[in-house]
Amino acid sequence: MTTAAAGSPRTYQVRTYGCQMNVHDSERISGLLEQAGYVRAAEADEQPDVVVFNTCAVRENADNRLYGNLGHLRPVKDKHPGMQIAVGGCLAQKDRGDIVRKAPWVDVVFGTHNIGSLPVLLERARHNTAAEVEILESLDVFPSTLPTRRESTYAGWVSISVGCNNTCTFCIVPSLRGKEKDRRPGDILSEVRALVDEGVLEVTLLGQNVNSYGVEFGDRYAFGKLLRACGDIEGLERVRFTSPHPKDFTDDVIAAMAETPNVCHSLHMPLQSGSDDVLRAMRRSYRSERYLGIIEKVRAAMPDAAITTDIIVGFPGETDADFEKTLDVVREARFSSAFTFQYSKRPGTPAATMDGQLPKQVVQERYERLIATVEEITWAENRKLVGETVEVLVAVGEGRKDERTGRLSGRARDGRLVHFDAGSLAGRIRPGDIVHTTVTYAAPHHLNADGEPLSHRRTRAGDAAEAGRSPRTPGVLLGLPTIGAPAAAPAPTGGCAAR
User: Is the pTM of this model over 0.90?
Assistant: First the structure.
C-alpha cells in the first residue's frame, strides 16, 4: 500500500521549530515542494506522504523534541509504506548522519545550506529505498533565490543576509549558518516589490545581524540606505527588521528609521546581559553604557519607539552583582517587551565548557525576578497608551482567546499586540485590513480596545485573505534540478524507507 492514490499528487507537511529564520526557511521548503508537484496536506491529515522537520539547535531540549516527534511518527510510517520523513535546519546541520543512526526510519537529512536540494533528495531516497544525507559546508545558492510559499497575505519575511561573523560564546549559529553572506540591494528590493504586488503591506528584513549588512561588499552604511529605499516602494506600509547587534548600530540607521515614513518605530535589540563582565565573557563587543546610549538616541529621534530585547540569565560565572546590573539596565531601558532565557549548555560552544556553571535553582530564582521586573515595566509602559488611538494591522492567530471573547487581534505600528472589538463592523474586517481604534485597557503583554473602531480600511491583503490566496514568489533556481509532479511510489521492499 502507498500513501498516495495512484496518479494523485503526494501531500506534504512542514513542522517548524526555532526563530524567524527557520519560519522563513519553511516557507521556502513549501515553495520548493509545491513547485515540484507536491500539495500541502490538510491540517487534520495525520498521515501526509512527506513530513519535513525544520529544526533548531539553539533552543533548549531541541534534540529531545526532535527525536521524540520522530519516535511518534515511526508507527505511522510503518503502517503507511511510501511515507517519507525529512529532517533539515540547524540541528540537521549539527548532527548530520547521527540522525539516521538514531532514527533509521528517516529518509532525508539536509542542512541549512542546501534547502534547494530537498525535492531531489526525496526522489533519490524513494528510488534507492535508502536514506539520503546531504550537508553542505557553505551556501550553494542564496536561499531567497528559491521559490517561496508565503504563510501570510499581509506580512512577509525578506532575508537580506544569512550567517554571522560574530563569535558569541553561547551561540552555535555561526557554525551552523556559516559566515555572513549579503544579498545585493537590488535583489532584496525586487523581492519586496514582488510581495507588495501580491498585496503584502508589511515586510520584515531578516538577518542574524542586519546592521552589519553590507560588510561583504564594503558599505558600512548599506543598511540605512536599504531602509530608505524601502520607503520609496509604493504600497509598502510597514517595514520592520530583526535583529541588529549593538556593536554595529550606527546613527544613520536611527536617522533612516525616523525619516522614512513606512519604517516602524519599533526596535528589537538584544541586550543579553547588563553586566560588562558577563558581556565580556559572552564575547559581546559592547558594554551597557554603549547599549543604553543607543536607546537614548533612538528615543530622542522617535519618542514613541517601542524597544524590545533578549536577555540570558545564569550565564557561567554570573554573580549576584552581575544580575543586579542586568535589572538596573532593564529599569533604565524601559523595554516594551523582553524575551528572557535561562542559560543552558549548547554542545560545541565555548560557554559549555566554561568554569562557573550555575546551579539550576540559582538560575531559576534570578529568572523569576527578571520576569517580575520586566512585567512591572512593560505594564507601566502599556498603561501610558490607554486612551490613545492606534493603527492595527489585523492578523491571524495572534489572539488565542479571540473566539471566546469575540475580539479580533493585530499589531500596532510599534509592534504591540492589540485585541479589539469589531463592534458594528463584525464580519466585515478581514486579516490584512487596517483599523484605527482607541486603547481602553493595558496588560503587561497586550492592549485591549473595546470600543467601536474609529475606522476600517479594506486592503488588497484583506481581499487575498478572503479569497484564500497566499503570496508566492517564484525565485530563480540558478540551475538547480527540478522534478515533475511525483507519481505514487510502489511499496518499498527493503532499505531504510521500509523500516
Answer: no
